[in-house]
Amino acid sequence: MFKRLLLLGFLSGILAGASALIYQKVYSTSVGVDFSAIARPAGIMVTSIIGGIIAACGYWILNKWLKEKTEIVFNFIFVILSFASILPAFAFKLPLDATSPELFPGLVIPMHFFPALAFFTLEPLFIKISEKTKSTVA
Q1: Which of 24, 81, 98, 108 sits at a 20 to 30 Å CA gap from 47?
Q2: Is the pLDDT of residue 78 over 70?
Q3: Where is 22: in which H helix or E strand?
């Protein structure tokens, strides 16, 4: 199960990163301000993949401890952490030459939820119902 969870984390990170890059392009086009020098595409992809892998490891650890209640506890923790992760976006200091800095939170805050959405979307493809109720190491 651990190998499948790592694959789930990696692929959900890629999906989240690709979604974030598409959102960045659409947002920049629609508001006319480009923050790609601050929120770099490579950084977005790497952060999304790392977030997906960390989420997969967290799911595996919770599955070891909680067995049947893994999914609800994991989902709750993942969503709480996603909400908590938006706080630094409000405190982020942009360069003084940044155009329309008030639009920056509108770009990055939704991106913080993309890893959770991607993980929740792909999870049924990787974790069978029978595996959610028992702890396996394979």
Answers
A1: 98
A2: yes
A3: helix 2-31
- The span from the CA of 2 to the CA of 101, in Å, is 42
> Whose CA is closest to 69, among 54, 13, 77, 122?
77
Asked if 1 and 131 touch (Cβ cutoff 8 Å), the reply is yes
C-beta of residue 118 within 8 angstroms of C-beta of residue 19: yes
SS3 50: helix
Task: Kindly state whether residue 131 falls inside one of the protein's structural domains.
Answer: no
Of 39, 59, 30, nearest in space to 126 by CA: 59
Cβ-based neighbour number of residue 87 at 10 Å: 11
Q: How far is CA 37 from CA 78, 97, 112, 116, in A?
A: 28, 12, 18, 25
Is the pTM higher than 0.70? yes
Identify whether the C-beta of residue 55 lies closer than 8 Å to the C-beta of residue 12: yes
| 96 lies in some domain | no
Domain range for 108: 2-90+102-125
Report yes or no on 135 lying in a domain. Answer: no
Asked, for residue 58, whether it belongs to a domain, the answer is yes
Q: How many domains does the chain have?
A: 1
Residue-wise pLDDT for 89-106, tens only, equals 888 887 767 778 788 888
